[in-house]
């Protein structure tokens, strides 16, 4: 199988769909959008490469590739998978990101997905706990401010502590909500997820 290094990758689906399907070869794989790149038409029995995307844990100096089979369909991850083809981005990861993925998926893909689901559920529980804490802290501050008998030096320390805790909870909630918005918008648009979502 020969290789072709494509240049100037297209980064959105609309531009990919507007590309002409005309190609001079009789058997070829057509333009296709994989959610990150638009892959150009490729001669049958050929592999095409594009530079890796930029992002945390990715090395843009490396290449990702897709393979076009001898019958003009994009090859899948397995030999029998011809649905949409498969883009091999595994070479794009930095060594530290690759090691982390190997640890995550060390036993099986299902086990790795289960670990990710546990982490997502843990984050949801953490957000719920932060909301309860914020509510309780606001009530406590309200009580300290409302009752005159609680306005003394001893409770002033507690009020300052509660204000600091409110600020900390608000910052963490803002980060988590921002991560959720980025995650959901990138899933809906089939874009790669950047940011600190997986912390």
UniProtKB/TrEMBL annotation:
In alphabetical order, the GO MF annotations are: G protein-coupled peptide receptor activity
Q: Which InterPro entries match?
A: GPCR_2 (IPR050332), GPCR_2_extracell_dom_sf (IPR036445), GPCR_2_extracellular_dom (IPR001879), GPCR_2_secretin-like (IPR000832), GPCR_2_secretin-like_CS (IPR017983)
Which SUPFAM superfamilies does this UniProt record tie to the protein? Hormone receptor domain
What domain of life is recorded for the organism? Eukaryota
- Looking at the UniProt entry, the stretches that span the membrane are 127-147, 159-177
Q: Which PROSITE patterns does the entry link to?
A: G_PROTEIN_RECEP_F2_1, G_PROTEIN_RECEP_F2_3
Which topology term describes how it sits in the membrane?
Answer: Multi-pass membrane protein
Q: Does the keyword Membrane apply?
A: yes
Q: Which UniProt keywords apply?
A: Cell membrane, Glycoprotein, Membrane, Receptor, Transmembrane, Transmembrane helix
Q: Outline the extent of the G-protein coupled receptors family 2 profile domain.
A: 15-96
The places in or outside the cell where this protein is found are:
Cell membrane
A GO BP annotation: adenylate cyclase-modulating G protein-coupled receptor signaling pathway
Q: GO CC annotations?
A: plasma membrane
The UniProt family comment states:
Belongs to the G-protein coupled receptor 2 family.
- This chain belongs to the protein called PDF receptor
Highest lineage ranks of the organism? Eukaryota, Metazoa, Ecdysozoa, Arthropoda, Hexapoda
